[in-house]
Each structure stands twice: as structure tokens, then as C-alpha cells.
Amino acid sequence: DNDCPADLRHVRLLYTFHGTTQDTARNKICQQGLVKLKGRDEGWYGSGVYTTTYSEYAEMYTQDGTVVLCAVVVGTVYPLSVESDGDDYFHSRWQGLGLQSGCDTHVVGVERDGEMADGLQACFLEVVSDNEAQVLPIAVFSTSREPGVAKPAVQRIWPDSNMQ
Which residues contact 71 (CB under 8 A, 6 or more apart)? Predict the structure, then answer.
């Protein structure tokens, strides 16, 4: 596109989701951005900021249905696989370590329980970004499922005038 500045034409963006609580979204993520898991968790697929390309998967990591929509800058990607990166389906050689040398993003297919999966067995994708600056929170929304309703009700929480 000719309207895009020349230095941004080759930037690759991936829209992802991050499950959290409304309190964390409001008081931390919207104020400071997302942070690496290393402070809380050693990171199953490497130390970094965890998001997913599936909102349904992000919802599994929230207690109150709060999900953050993010834009992730993706440079060099290392795709994890059970064959090359797992001792078996339940263990990742990247647990607690930094990302693959020369890469700023890990992408891994996972099953519904979060375990690494290969190929068509993967239900979801996890995206692990090396640097917090790669992940920009765009919006926060809350989903709620009512009994008998197939689609969740979505309520936008941020950005709005009540959440600075």
C-alpha cells in the first residue's frame, strides 16, 4: 500500500488474543502492556509473552471471560514440533529457556489441554514473543456464555472513557 511509510512496509503483524482477568487487564495490561511469563512462570514453550490466534483458547486462561486483542510484530519465527522440540507430547525442551537463537517468536500447535501437538492434531496455536515491545494491546473485551446460546455475548471494555 502506498499510504504506508516505507520503513513499515515489511512489518508483519499477527492479531492474537490473551486471556486474563478484568482487574489485570484494567490495572496492568492497559497501563504497562503484557509482560513475559518468566516472573510468574518459566514458560512451557520458552520464556516470553504468550498469546494465541484463537479467542476460544484465550478464554481457557481467564476466570471472568476477559480477553485482550493484541497486534504482535513477528520477525523470525521458529515453529516448534513434537519431533524436534519435545521429549514426548508432554515435555518441551524449551521450558524455562529463551527462544531459539536468531528468532523473536516461537509458534506451537497445541491440543485443547495445552500440550504440544503436531500437524493436523493441533487445535490451537500459541505464539510466544521474545520481547514485550512486540505485543501491543489493542482492545479488551469480555465474553459470557448463556445457557442454550451458541455464540458468546461480547462486551467491549477498553478502550472507552471509563478505562484510562
Answer: 13, 14, 15, 16, 135, 136, 138
